Amino acid sequence: MDFKREIAKVLEKPTKLTQEEILGLLEVPPNTELGDYAFPCFNLSKSLKKSPIELAKSLQTIKYPITIKKIQAVGPYLNFFINKSTLAEETITKIIKEKENYGAHKTNQTILIEGWQPNTHKAFHIGHIRNAVLSEAISRILEFNGYKVIRTAYMGDIGAHVAKWIWYFKKFYKGSIPKEKVSKWAGILYTKATVESEKNKSFQEEIQEIQRQLEQGDPKLLKLWKETRELCLKDFKRIFKELDCSIHRYYFESEVEKEGIGLVKDLEKKGIARYSEGAIILDLESYNLGVFVLLKSNGTSLYSTKDLALAKLKEKEYHYDSSLYIVANEQDHHFRQLFKTLELSGFKGYKKLKHISYGLVRLQEGKMSSRLGNILLYEDFRDQVMVKAEKQLKQRNLSKDKKEKIKHQVAFGAIKFTMLAQDPQKEIVFNSNQALSFEGFSGPYLQYVCTRAYSILKKAKYKPLAFNATLIVHPTEQALITKLSLFPEITQKAATELKPSLISYYLLDLAKSFNEFYHQCPCIQTEKELAQVRQTLVAVSRQTLKNGLNLLGIESPEEM
Questions:
Q1: pLDDT in tens, 505-527
Q2: CA-CA distance, 130 to 136, in Å (whole number)?
């Protein structure tokens, strides 16, 4: 039963608001003593010509169905107390019936997501992890809400950074090309290339010549580029697999560059763009967006050049209702310029485009940079977490194979939760102690709560039988039921706001409620009928935790 909808029906007539307007105003009080839902009366004060406090008092006498236990005015709020037995029976029955689909919704919209954006010939680092797991989590949340999601990656595989890398490889590198961890190796070479290239001005000219030869199709350089590009891509796909990321279509800068140059020149011919000091630009000053450079004076492309072509290629290949770009906030201005340029160029789908901005990951020492080499590489970060996870499991009575599997689940749970628990807009300052913590605000903590629930059910030899919801009277039981009932609302809000962090915080609150219930309510050593009810509550709590963790891409071990 949708209890919020029931409240909206009760308030519709006396407030003269639509049910949708009421649903948008309903709040969840900070503690259960103030009810399950609260309706603020501030917005009605002017139209009904009463103070918010007077309105709340007058509305508390309205008639309500048996699903609502009581209505109470507290200051300017009208607080609703749900019939706990009804809430418990409805919630538990729904979770048992829907299982892994509990909290899901339906829609008929299609969303294209562009994320997963490392560059070949550079290292995959901790910042790319946030991009990858954020893109994956948003995709999962949208799919859970019924959207058809088209997952696309866009990678930089050409340009100045590739020319610099090839220049260093040919001029200075004496070793062989490795068979594995190519991304890490390529990143180290890129840093060395940057340091070396800044020692001598003539080196910059040599790099530019390499780029010119690549663009003109020099056979030997192209062969080296293709070989190393494919090795980098193979390594990226391995990493995405480790992170449990699913990608439907890979786009590359190399496949949209020529089309992009053509589009820019066409904009100039139409008088939309113009030449300025040899470059082609679009003056967006009248829109407070400055000048958007579309093509360099030497005729080579920029991000803007290729992004114009990419937007049109994605629309040509897919029919979508919305297209999301999940890119760090350093590119906020770029996307405002890009979308305005697409609008001015006559691209009809510009209104469907949206940039999902997120904060960068920084070290405590400051901003990371592939160019400077002060980055925490993916493999190094992963291995640090693996070592910590292994230490945590060392004293556990587990087989070697189980320990290896659980170590992997726990380590990646720690990595993903670290990247997703923050609001996407906020930067993450990487702190190794916090990231590797297995207590409190962490992924492994949530995994452990799931494991504890499984252990209770295993010890009790639990079987899903009929339960008596009227026996759920302990405050911690009722608080847990209330928290469980909110999961569908949270998943829908997370999809609307595109914020996996909402799921993260909900799961932490749910885990806290479960632990309070577990510590105060015996689930095995108690009267048989009551034990059955409480074990059922354990089972549905575990199911809901698993559903939420899965939306974050985090596995739920049965043992830890």
A1: 999 999 999 999 999 999 999 99
A2: 10
